[in-house]
Amino acid sequence: MSDQKKIANRGKRIPKKRVWLLSSASLLGLLVISTPTIIARTGIRDQLINAIIAASHLSASTEGASVGWLSPLSVDGLRINGMQNRFQVEVDRVTADRSWPRLLTSSPNLGKITVEKPHVKLMLPLTNEAALTTTLATNFTAAIHNAALSVEHDRLDEPLIDVNGIDLTVHLQESDQGMLLSVDSLDIYQHEELTPKYCSQLLGMINPSLQDAANIDGEFSLSLAKFDVPIGVTEEQFLQHLQLQGELALHQVAIETESELLQALSKLVADAHDKPVPAQTRVVKDALIQFEVREGRLHHEGLRFGFPDIDPELEIQTYGSVGLDQTLDAYIEIPRFDQQKHDELGPIVCHVTGSVSNPRLSAKNATLVVHSPNRDAPLIDVEGIDFTAQIENSENGRMISFEPMSVLDHAKLDRQLASSLLQWLEPGMQYSPRMEGEVTLWVEHLRIPIEAAEEDLPDLLEMNGKLVIHEATSFAETPIRQAILQLVSDLYDKQPSDSVRIALDDEVEFQLKEGRFHFDGLRVGLPDISPQLEITSHGSIGFDETLDIFVSVPRLDDDKQKQHGPVQCHLTGTVSAPELAAKNASLVIHLPNRAEPLVDIDGIDLTMHVEEWKGNRVISVNPTQLMRRQKIDRQLATGLLQLVDPELQYFPEIVGEVSLSVDSLRIPVGAQDKQWVNALEAHGKLEIHQATSLVKSPLRMAITKLLADLYSIHPGESIRMIHDAEIEFGLQESRFQFSGLRFGFPDIDEALQIQVEGSIGLDQTLDLQLQLPRLDGAKRAGKGVVHCRITGTVSHPQFAVTDASLIVRLPEHQQPLLDIDTLDFDMEIQFEGDTPVLQLAPTRIFDHQRLTTQRSEEWLRLIAPAIADVTAMEGDLSLTINSLRIPLSGSQQQLLRSTELSGDLQLHEVTTKVETPLLSAMVKVLADQYGKEASETIRIAKDAKISFELRDGRLFQKGLRFGFPDLSPDLVLQTNGSVGLDRTLDLTLQVPAALAAELGGEQGTVRFQVTGTIDDPQVVELED
Question: Residue 865 in 3-state DSSP?
């Protein structure tokens, strides 16, 4: 520009106001242009965002923004917090569909917003106070990409929703109930691997029993059809209007869970199927679960899960709702174990109420099975029952606690019932093949542990209630029942009862605690023994089958019952091996086919137990003192004592005392008669103190007869058992074996003692060894006692005597009929009618025995009176007794007439002198007949055999032949006839007629009759 122009311009001045306006306009334009930049780069952007949101209870902050007058608003690092930190949003980027001026002018309708990687955190309810004074009034639709959503509730430990990486569309808009945050339908997961976290969040919300899962296997898919969250309302309004709908698909899911509800359910189902509680729950393949949140509750249907360890086909279906406050209102359908009943009645429906931490289960027409630890038979196994139970805490862990319930109402007694709860009251029922009656069961309290280890379960299971048994009858087959019935049956002198009757309407209170079943009030009747007999009991039975039971048994004798009361027994041990202790009791042991008991003792203390012994079940009595110096009476004498001394059973009055102790006594139970007798065993000591009885038994009569004859006296009437004789005995295999028995015969000899040992069978067979003292002192010193073995039976004994003396005496005769030493012989007792007879078996007394004057005894006088009492005799003889029968009872005349003797006497070349009156008379008659001097020598025919027989008091004989060589070498006489025990003679002599013919020409036989007595014989010739 030229200088002239410059000078011209200075002259023209611009007005100041215009300059200010221009400056202001320029500044304003610059400000307007720079405002978006200022807002985006300063704290004004947070104020602008809060103004756009227009919610006083929300505060927003950002990390950056893109703000333009015409371009859409874009915010980076947006964070929104509000409602007392119960609503938080963290967003990487938010982009609006319009510029910020339009957002301000259109607020609260913000249009559509695009959100990248938001993380929304909701703590429900969004307010825990009263309704907000200023409610959120902003409306928008947000397209959210790669979002994360966390929804939690104050009452829940785990989030309701905790997902990420999803795309969704969210609407915030006003509704009739206020502002509503809603989410469009979307698929959140497709065949996603199921983890413990997902299981707790998803399955746990639908069914809390599936929370706390571990060892999960499977996949799931999740889709939402509706999700509406009210904002800015009270908790009550929030729970009322919150809505959530969707589907959860489970693809072959298997889990292991520690959920208390599922453990309780598993316990009940496993017991019902008689299986162990499973460790794994399997959700059925491709189960589709519909769920919906409404009115504060999460409803679901279609959840099916199973227990493969119980039954691969078992499926349980659930439906119902869970409150956000964790209250439960769900139903579980459980198929019945019996398919026919399932088809008829449908599944068991269990209603679950209460809360997640304390669920409550109610069932109608259900099956309740409670298993006893370590036992096959359940404790309770009842169908058609209504029950209510809940899970509760106890000092021993979580328990299923049942409310009082009626389990049975006049239910017919069957094997299943008998082997369940009733077996703890009456263990015999579980073994009984048949039973009758009805049962009513009321359970006041039942608690089943669900977390206890198997070994701890018996101590933690609890139950109490009442059991009413209506006229129940069953059979006795358990050791404990058989033992009691055996004892009671013997006590009442009856055969063991087969049946047991529990008293009509017998109410039994019971309690199960600490592994033991306690009961009181059980009354058992034994109708086969006595219609009035009732045995009462109370006590406990452990799950380990140990016993602690007290039994009261009424006494048979009314006076004793009034005086002492019933017998009190204490049962311990186990069900299979019980032990019984009784105070002031009676021990009665009956033998089959015997009227009198083997043992019948009152007032003793007993301890016994049941055990297996040699293949038999027996009652084993512990060592005990059964009697101490007890007076012997008829009852004792016909029992155990008669096995030691059978004599006692025949004599009603016995004087003396007895002591009895047993080291062992085993009484079989439940066996047949023959097996029972063979299995009965006893060992102990019996002491007999100065016992005396009369001789009555055939056995004792025989012994007494032998001893009396041996001692040259008449049999005595009394027998005394030696004072304080100790007898060791053992009863085994049906035989009573003993040693140490000593008894004496005071009427024979005060010092006489006989020792006996051996055995007597319960069938009264004998196998005894007697030691008889010898009469001769020298023989007694040299040879000791005579041994006699007794066999046969008590009523028909047989004797085998070795190296003994055989002496047979007859009434009113000083000299014995037989008196023979060093002889082995056998004898037995037979009966002629009611009279016992001692019979000697055929015996060879002598065999070519040298004949001496010592042999000229009474038997020789009676058999061959012609040669008896000769001082000079040579030769030898043989003697055989074919039969000897001596009656043991009757008058002297009866004894004399009934004694029988027969045998043979052989004389081998015997020569003797004529010295006896009978020989002298015979020789004189013959000498006169022959006209010669009397002969001084007689020769007995070689091997002459004399047969003899004693009957009717006379000894008949035939066959004696002897000669008179001094008269005629060929003269041989033969004698026949009899000699009386009174020494009278009735003999016939026969002389060959040929010899008489040579002298006198006579033909035939010359016969002479000998009468008179042995000392004064009369010989006369008989005429034909």
Answer: coil
